[in-house]
């Protein structure tokens, strides 16, 4: 881990998707990848995994920057009581989308903000229900070939062509589906005295 800290706001992630989302709030921040074991523990649900890992990610990075406010986030997906992971290969991505076709998948996006110096923690899990269209094999194959969503839980990128896979999305925070719930994050930042509407966090 690169521990050269020069920001008071840190995103505990190496995800380019989450970094791009956080850039929407026009805040100065630094990205540091947390070094944690992301394997689920026996009996954990998709929701509890997202909650636990978002906190663990934030706390792992906060050890290297106790004065900073660290943002941790994690996302899991659940279909028919089974957890959907990142496919990692085109074949697995195809199988995931075949399983999701015509069904509703629930995504759980956990967010945690932690400042070690004050031992202050904010955490929340936002759920998003996604109803997939009934997809043909050709549609699925074309989509996987076009966007290569192999590092995404559920095998899609909703900020791109993946939005065409869906019939309906239901959530209190639509940005959560990409990986970082910006509405919940803004509320959390406000509780730490950081208001994106009033400051660019440059000091």
Task: Summarize the entry for a quick read.
The protein is of the alpha/beta class and 203 residues long.
Question: Secondary-structure blueprint of this entry?
Answer:
Blueprint: E1 9-11, H1 16-23, E2 30-31, H2 46-62, E3 69-79, E4 82-84, H3 90-100, E5 104-115, E6 120-132, H4 137-147, E7 166-171, H5 182-191
Parallel strand pairs: 1-2, 1-3
Antiparallel strand pairs: 3-4, 3-5, 5-6, 6-7
Describe this structure in words.
This protein has 203 residues and is an alpha/beta fold. The protein has one domain (9-191): Maf protein (Alpha-Beta Complex). 28% of the residues lie in helices and 25% in strands. It is built from 5 helices and 7 strands, in the order E-H-E-H-E-E-H-E-E-H-E-H. It has helices at 16-23, 46-62, 90-100, 137-147, 182-191, and strands at residues 9-11, 30-31, 69-79, 82-84, 104-115, 120-132, 166-171. Strands 1, 2, 3, 4, 5, 6 and 7 form a 7-stranded mixed β-sheet that branches. Strand 1 (9-11), helix 1 and strand 2 form a beta-alpha-beta unit. The longest helix is centred in the first third of the chain and has 17 residues, at 46-62. It is globular and about 50 Å long. It starts with 8 loop residues before the first strand and ends in a 12-residue tail after the last helix. The model has no long low-confidence stretch (mean pLDDT 92).
Order of helices and strands: EHEHEEHEEHEH
Task: Report the span from N to C terminus.
Answer: 24 Å
**CATH architecture level-2 label:** Alpha-Beta Complex
Coarse morphology: globular
Largest sheet: 7 strands, mixed
Q: Total domains, how many?
A: 1
- Discrete helix count: 5
Mean pLDDT, as a whole number? 92
Structural class: alpha/beta
Question: How many DSSP E strands?
Answer: 7
Give me the CATH fold name: Maf protein
Helix coverage percent of residues?
25-40%
CATH class: Alpha Beta
Low-pLDDT runs:
none
